[in-house]
Prior knowledge:
By secondary structure, the chain is an alpha/beta fold.
Amino acid sequence: IQVGAVYPQIELGGEPEAVRAVADAVVEQGYRHLVAYDHVLGADHADREPPLAGPYCETDPFHDPFMLFSYLAGRSDTLEFASGVLILPQRQTALVARQAADISLLSGGRLRLGVGVGWNWVEYDALGADWPTRGTRADEQIRVLRALWTDPLVTLDGEFHRLDRVAI
């Protein structure tokens, strides 16, 4: 059994001292991994159509999982990291592939990447990502990620991606 901890992002206010203290405590208590959630932006829920149904709002601070994990990988040689979940369709696929590969490489393979499609359509709008196609886009993104991580050279002509003999 692998037991981990969830980083208490909204409860700590985003303070750097809290990041260090939580990570150190997780390691000291013998937990194997730390999970962090992903939101680039929060939004005021009032007067939205359709309504926002998620639990987070504009006052809830989030650290970017890739930045958080990069920082913490330098503080511990044993702590593993898991995104729970990275909202994939609102991010550029090749950039996610590069960032995840770098964290995995530089941490000695201690990253597990969980992805999902999210619930905050306001966040999608602000990031210039298409809300209605998020599920279909995520399916293709997963195929692209796997190819970029395993193939020496990738060519793909998909609905959302055009890759012509590229590699990370």
